[in-house]
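[Solved] Which block belongs to which protein?

Original post:
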Amino acid sequence: MRLPLLALLANGPAHGYELKHALEALLGAAYPRPNVGQIYVTLGRLAKTGLIVGEEVEQPDRPNKRIYRITDAGREAVHAWFEDAIVEPRIRDEFFMKLALASRSGATSKTALISKQRRHYLKSLRELSRLAASEDRDNRVAHLLIEGALLHLQADLEWLERCQEELE
């Protein structure tokens, strides 16, 4: 949450609810809705580390609000974030660890484990497909997020088939 909030603030000052709504509008319904409490905690931590500064703004008929601005150090952090490639190999996949240990533990069979995971992936595929059909067509970012998730699930299903063929 830290770096996405900084990236949003690189575009201009905002308060927590504006940042929450900006993330929701950008990412659509497929991405888990950010918790406003988490956003404000994160903004507080970013301020403590000097990546943003907050300023109280008076509102005539409402409580004061805090507007956050990115600092030069925050801009450098955003720049570094965009420069770094995302490297997340799935070598430490929790499902595969379960699969590898299933027969040794005696707690379940590999077939039962694979079947349960397959049902979960198929349910997720159906939910994402419904979400894709209902998502605002103009929100390309949200559609690409859903498409990426669908492709990952399809690859996971193919991998499960391979596991079942190889391990049984």
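(Second protein starts here: sequence line, then its structure tokens.)
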Amino acid sequence: MSAPTLATLPTAPQLLCAFQGRRFQERVLLRFAHALVELHKRRAHLRDLTEIAEIDGRRGELVDDINAWIIRKMPQHRNGASLHTESLGAVIDRMAHSWVAANQAIEVEGVRSDRTHRHWYHLAELVDGYTDLIAEVAGGRRRLPVQ
């Protein structure tokens, strides 16, 4: 089994561009990431529990699609690699949610508010964590759970 390569996974800046709707069509994982953002945007304005459940179901399907893609494209070594606590699909879903929340905070609170700053700081932490995670996965030091 060959080692995963960092080039297989999108970088954090590529994910952020996909979240914005820029340059995501050419890569499957970026299309999934963009679709997650669109679902989080729609979900943020809903009050109907049935519609929220439908969106959450679709998000779950996209997370599963990301995880299945990872399994196909990035074989992982079990020997010596620590298991990460959540799947890459779940990580990208959390980043998409944080990106939507940060942008909504700007719209509602403005760019100078403490709330907006907290949302963007949280997103920056997730971006740093994602960057570290994909480097560790590509280096064989960390492996991702199947689900």
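Accepted answer:
You had them paired correctly. Confirming on the second one: Strands lie at 82-83, 142-143.
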